[in-house]
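Below is a filled-in request sheet from our internal design queue. Each sheet records the structural input a requester submitted and the sequence that came back. We keep these sheets so that new team members can see what a complete request looks like end to end.

REQUESTER: design group, bay 2
PRIORITY: normal
MODE: inverse folding
CHAIN LENGTH: 211
BACKBONE (tokenized):
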């Protein structure tokens, strides 16, 4: 249907009012919330690919994510009514001592766009808060972001807390942020590493074994 393509395009070009108007129209026309969600996700997937290939930069992604959020605000109550299950649950945050959140927000929005339920704890998140929230909310993964060479050490502390709580079998840990590398992830025992927001989605899908 033409309107699905237009909806996906409104996400790609970050047109919030258009995305909301089309979402409302499609639902009013009897299209299922799941079909609307798939169309939004297909738009966000294009954004992820373009970002990965340096065709889009941070501002375009943020604008697209804002459009996605706006459409999701209309769609969410309907999705809940019809019982569409998220593909996985992830607790995300920037580690203790670190206030950088632009990259973390991008990852968070891309994950939501891909159909994950994201519990975003914000910035300056302590190891205990990561672990307790993941436990209480039954999350399958913790995603940590760090932008400072000093605060990335707190990723190791969080993994220690996950291990000490004896829940590392059921809660995977993925890390990222400018100073973070795959080597560092290996060194501290993280289950996954992603260099950018689109890769964070594929890494979490791989770890949580979702399509
Ligand atoms: Co700060 N800062 N900053 N800063 N800042 C850096 C990081 C720095 C490299 C600048 C520099 O000196 N060249 C430097 C760190 C040096 C170091 O540790 N080696 C630095 C410093 C020193 C500081 C302060 C200490 C400065 C001071 O006060 N003296 C201070 C620290 C405050 C604190 O956190 N406690 C500070 C403060 C700030 C601002 C508040 C002013 C602001 C943050 C605003 C905000 O986030 N709301 C800020 C900014 C904007 C930056 C730069 C300029 C940009 C960071 C950014 O947003 N990049 C940065 C320099 C730079 O990188 N050019 C810098 C864009 C973002 C999309 O990229 O976050 O890397 P990024 O996210 C990417 C990937 O890394 C990945 O996906 C994202 C999208 O592709 N990714 C993940 C991120 N998280 C992931 C998680 C995943 C997977 C992938 O899995 C869960």
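RETURNED SEQUENCE:
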């Amino acid at each position: 249907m033409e309107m699905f393509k237009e909806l996906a395009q409104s996400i790609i070009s970050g047109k919030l009012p258009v995305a909301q108007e089309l979402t409302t129209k499609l639902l009013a026309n009897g299209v299922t919330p799941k079909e609307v969600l798939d169309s939004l996700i297909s738009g966000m997937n294009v954004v992820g690919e373009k970002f990965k290939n340096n065709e889009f930069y941070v501002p375009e992604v943020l604008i697209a994510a804002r459009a996605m959020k706006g459409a999701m605000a209309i769609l969410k109550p309907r999705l809940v009514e019809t019982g569409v299950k998220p593909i996985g649950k992830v607790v995300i945050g920037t580690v203790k001592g670190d206030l950088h959140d632009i990259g973390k927000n991008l990852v968070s929005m891309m994950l939501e766009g891909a159909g994950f339920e994201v519990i975003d704890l914000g910035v300056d998140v302590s190891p205990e808060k990561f672990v307790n929230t993941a436990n209480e909310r039954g999350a399958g993964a913790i995603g940590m972001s760090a932008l400072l060479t000093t605060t990335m050490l707190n990723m190791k502390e969080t993994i220690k807390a996950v291990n000490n709580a004896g829940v590392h079998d059921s809660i995977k840990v993925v890390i990222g942020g400018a100073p973070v590398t795959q080597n560092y992830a290996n060194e501290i025992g993280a289950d996954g590493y992603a260099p950018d927001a689109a890769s964070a989605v594929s890494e979490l899908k791989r770890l949580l074994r979702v399509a």
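SHEET NOTES:
- Residues 94 and 123 are 5 Å apart (CA to CA).
- The first helix runs from residue 2 to 12.
FILED BY: M.R.
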